[in-house]
Amino acid sequence: MKKQILIFLKRHTGFIIFSLLFFLSHLLYLDTDFHVLEPDEGLFYSFVQQVKMGHWPVFDGHLFLETFPLFIFLSAWLDKLTHVWGIFVAQRLLAIIGTYLLCLGMYIFGLAHKHKDFGLVAAYLVWLMPLSFFYSQTGTMDMLYLGLASLSIALLILNLQKSKTHHLLLAGILLALAILIKFTTCIFLLSPLVIWILYGKKIIKKLAYYYLGAGIVVGFILIPYWYIFKNNFVAQALNYPGQHFLNLFNFRVHLATLYIYIQKSTFLFSPFLALLSLLGMLTLLFLVIKLAKKQNTNSWQDQYMSHILIFFVPAFIFLYLFNFSPRYALLLVPALGLLGSYFLTSLFSRKTIYIALIIVLPWTYQAWLATQHISIRETKQYVLTLKKAYDLPIYASFEPEKLSTYFDLPIRLLSPEALKGGIIITDERKTELMANLSEEPYMAMKETWQKLDASKQVWLYTDIYNHFPVDSRNNVFKVYLITGLD
Q1: SS3 457
Q2: pTM greater than 0.70 (yes/no)
């Protein structure tokens, strides 16, 4: 047993060192406040609070049934174990775990092709990629579902040449858990279909076990879930994707959306990784042409690249069908990490690869800075002080529902009523976005925001950090006090 452990440690020393560096970097400075331009962290903060009080999560006056609340339940459980650290830390710990599972999936992908250096470099690229690094420090569902799904697909690829049924069932169960975290994972149900196209009928039995593992778990959970909530669950589950789904036949809109992803790739992934990804996609295109012409693709390089299609095709289809969002861009992270690793390890020495990883760090650092906001905490402390002195309603020009939960006070969307008396919270970045919305409450908010008298401003806080992945600029928070006695 001792000898086997030593052999294992020696064989995977590189990934063990990676794991130590990974957790060291991610467990620093977790206890910060939610990101104003990625407010879902604040939304889940409120859901976890509700679950801790014994209530089902409620949003906008309705039960939250948009997805199965596994992430919320896990966050509440973790917070109970680590209650000294706070809810945000519990949510972010799940994001870190999800990111690590994603990196583990990349490493296993390399092992599946008997080139563990490919998988190890891919893990480093995924870890340091600005977009994935930011979301690994943000308490949303995204990295956990993506990590589970990627590990599931990597295990499936590893077992394509083997006959271990229990491994295929395990891979399917991991995919099922990812679906229960976030229904976006359903797009990865297309991955086995890509495998079927690549391998043909000889692989159908293995894919059946994979789908069986996923189907049993999803069915066991979601059928009772549907029976309890019925039409409300179906309506909400379909409503959210329906809001973001692009017109299927408006090709100009689809192409424009893909152009936005290309345009923002240097910001989201760093210029260096964006260039590597572009070269990788061209290589994938040549491979697809070879497959279409039924040319020989038996070399390990072609096998490696064709298996990247298993990650890339579902992600591309999703990005093509839905409007732009940095969170959706996360679906590309596994494929881009593997593509970047292919070029680095094929063309350069280890020393050069380490230098290339260092080149990415300034962009990673910017993404890390974007997770360090304390502006909401400072704003909360000042507003609570004002509230003790003045019994006035509180208004905000951005995210009133999420702020209400965090402040533990009712906060309304800024409206003309606030000019008669109230404590008003504004910022620049999120308010700019919400002022562009065409619904009546937001139009009234914009009009009121523009009428605010600078002489009524009693507090200002300049947030020095950027708002990656939405905006590279910092933010300014202001508090106005209108007593109604003037």
Answers
A1: strand
A2: yes
